[in-house]
């Protein structure tokens, strides 16, 4: 095998390595458990895209290593299409997770959450489909997120709870919005009269462990907050991997073209010798 083919094989091996973080990100998204894994958005498609990239990159590596030009050419076309899909997914993910429903609360380390801060697409995903939300709500209630918060013995005085950095689901689903003015009794137990004028969720709050704020808009916003956090982390990993993948792929295209030119020159020279 020519030196250029060795170089092309090495470059395609680097492409293969670049696809590993993409597949791993999809698996990480798909394997989330507990309350933060109740809302599933395009998780398996990311894992499937990563797996396809791995397979195509492996085919390109074998094609270059064994000097199979036809296989290598098919690899270049297939990889270009998959990279385009990956970049489109990243752009879409950044667009739909751009807004945040979190807003700071004076005197609190945690944020409260409202639906209005998220993109319309995300709001429709959770709040626009009652059947989907019922499934997510049951998942959050059964995850034990609020139950674990209620049994946390580190909150001896209210100020200790107020200075805790709660997760979006803990803040949105396990307690009432701060604006309601309820008095702290425990992480999931609050006293006082509802103030619907302050927020519609104030009347939806219940100290019943089976209800809490699972029917609140703030709970939907908390679920979206968890989903947004996951995808923001995934977006960073996908973007870094995609940039490296595009760079190495372009270098691979140049190496493939040089190999083709070298092969044509060698055939031309061999023909002139006879």
UniProtKB/TrEMBL annotation:
Protein name: Tetraspanin
A Pfam family the protein falls into: Tetraspanin
Keyword Transmembrane: yes
Protein's gene: LOC101767590
One Gene Ontology cellular component annotation held by this UniProt entry: plasmodesma
Similarity remark: Belongs to the tetraspanin (TM4SF) family.
Spans traversing the lipid bilayer: 7-30, 42-65, 72-96, 236-259
Top-level taxonomic group: Eukaryota
Record keywords, A-Z: Membrane, Transmembrane, Transmembrane helix
Topology of the protein relative to the lipid bilayer: Multi-pass membrane protein
Organism, as annotated: Setaria italica
Any GO BP: auxin-activated signaling pathway
Location of this chain's protein in the cell: Membrane
């Amino acid at each position: 095998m020519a030196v250029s083919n060795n170089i092309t094989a090495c470059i395609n091996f680097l492409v293969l390595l670049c696809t590993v973080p993409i597949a791993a990100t999809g698996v990480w998204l798909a394997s989330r458990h507990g309350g933060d894994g109740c809302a599933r958005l395009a998780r398996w498609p990311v894992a499937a895209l990563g797996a396809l990239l791995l397979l195509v990159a492996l085919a390109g590596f074998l094609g270059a290593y064994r000097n199979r030009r036809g296989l290598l050419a098919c690899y270049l076309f297939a990889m270009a299409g998959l990279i385009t899909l990956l970049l489109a997914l990243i752009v879409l993910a950044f667009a739909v997770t751009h807004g945040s429903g979190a807003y700071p609360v004076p005197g609190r380390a945690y944020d409260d959450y409202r639906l209005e801060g998220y993109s319309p697409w995300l709001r429709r995903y959770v709040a626009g489909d009652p059947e989907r939300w019922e499934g997510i709500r049951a998942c959050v209630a059964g995850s034990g997120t609020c139950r674990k918060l209620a049994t946390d013995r580190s909150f001896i005085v209210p100020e200790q709870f107020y200075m805790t950095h709660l997760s979006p689901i803990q803040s949105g689903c396990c307690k009432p919005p701060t604006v309601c003015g309820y008095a702290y009794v425990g992480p999931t137990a609050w006293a006082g009269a509802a103030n619907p004028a302050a927020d519609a969720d104030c009347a939806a709050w219940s100290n019943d462990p089976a209800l809490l704020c699972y029917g609140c808009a703030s709970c939907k916003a908390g679920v979206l907050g968890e989903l947004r956090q996951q995808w923001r982390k995934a977006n960073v990993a996908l973007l870094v991997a995609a940039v490296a993948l595009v760079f190495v792929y372009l270098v691979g295209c140049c190496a493939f073209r040089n190999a083709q030119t070298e092969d044509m020159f060698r055939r031309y020279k061999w023909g002139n010798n006879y």
